[in-house]
Amino acid sequence: MVEWTNGTTYSCVGVFLAGTGEVEVLKDAKGHKCIPSVVAFKDGRVLTGYEAVAQADHNPSNTLYDAKRFIGKKFSPEELNTERPRYPFKIQLDDEGMVYFVVGPPNNLTNVRPEEVGAHLLRTLRQTAIANLSSSVTKTVMSVPAEFVDMQKNFTKKAASLAGLEVLRVISEPTAAAMAYGLHKKQNVQSVMVVDLGGGTLDVSLLMVQGGMFFTQAMAGNNHLGGQDFNQRLMSFLRSVIEKESNRVLTDPEDLQALRLVSEEVKLKLTTDEQVEISVPLQSTKSTFKYSISREKFEEVNLDLFKKVLQPIEMALQEAEMSKNQIDEVVLVGGSTRVPKIRQLIGDYFGKEPNTAVDPELAVAFGVGIQAGILGGMWPLQVSAIELPTNARKIHVY
Ligand SMILES: Nc1ncnc2c1ncn2[C@@H]1O[C@H](COP(=O)(O)OP(=O)(O)OP(=O)(O)O)[C@@H](O)[C@H]1O
Ligand SMILES: [Mg+2]
């Protein structure tokens, strides 16, 4: 049995190892643990993951991504009109208000449903699993975002069945993350706050746990807060330094692009290093910009954004009518929770260390694997884990 995590940006496949009780996130032939959730149609062929990304620039209208945002969801024509400008591919609505994409050469257009995009990714991941395990792969456990309603879950299942997989269970991402930390079997844990801060979005879920049963009590989030915003702040700062030094406005698109790439790189380094040396050749000034930036400076230019992470946490607590000291465990998920200052702000807020031992990008995949192990009766201890249906609705911060 395999488990599948389908991200907006990346999808991963893992397997529960009955012998050790561990979960292994599987690597494909090229050594990638997760593949971009991108599917492209080219010369009658279907490309997935890195292969699809590699040709995206030359084939944007036939390279589909973000299908997860459309799967199993009804859109009004107005809602779709606000989405369309963000994508280089053609998006249409059927009579039922469901989305489909139109791809292919003009003389041979075909319609592709979001669940078919999911199925193509799943087939690739299934092949990875088959190659790793040298056995057939027919059953799976999947994770979906906390706010997915039944129809979105059902269409996600449909993606799996199109790929020839039987779905044993669908669990929510925060529940999976909590399970990655073994919180379904830990004594005296009744309430868990899961904070997922990725590249562009913040999602917070307050889970109640009892006897291995999870219940989502409240959800809140900010769809416009994440690592990209921190990069943007850093880039603006570096740009202002360059402009002051050179006494002119930096507008060269290639220089700006170089600065953008460096900002992401520098941000990642500042997670482990206190100080980072920057060196970027600029064509507009015909010189190399050199600068030494401290973690402190990075934190300073982002502090108001970092503090915004606490907003949906407070809203979720309010919604659940709970206080922060009633939270037994805090779980951090998503790449941006690696930023030391963010960990510190969250830790200080709750007055306790958040759980960070599991790789924040793989925690959901691990948790889904644990669920698969429990369902397969392979878990070494007698534990159960069940997710109860919830009526909680996500509260958005704008
Ligand atoms: N070591 C690090 N330090 C700081 N930020 C990091 C680090 N590693 C990854 N990130 C950031 O994490 C973000 C990606 O996280 P993740 O993979 O969880 O996002 P995602 O799930 O694709 O996005 P979203 O959940 O917003 O749709 C990127 O902005 C990346 O820069
Ligand atoms: Mg994410």
TrEMBL record:
Main localisation: other
Subunit structure: Binds UBQLN2.
PROSITE patterns linked to this entry: HSP70_2 (PS00329), HSP70_3 (PS01036)
A Pfam family this chain is assigned to: HSP70
One function term, GO molecular function aspect: ATP binding
CDD domains from the UniProt entry: ASKHA_NBD_HSP70_HSPA13 (cd10237)
Task of the protein: Has peptide-independent ATPase activity.
Annotated localization: Microsome
InterPro entries the UniProt entry points to: ATPase_NBD (IPR043129), Heat_shock_70_CS (IPR018181), Hsp_70_fam (IPR013126), HSPA13 (IPR042048)
Keywords: ATP-binding, Endoplasmic reticulum, Microsome, Nucleotide-binding, Signal
Transmembrane region(s): none
Record's keyword annotation contains Cytoplasm: no
Protein name in UniProt: Heat shock 70 kDa protein 13
Family that this chain belongs to: Belongs to the heat shock protein 70 family.
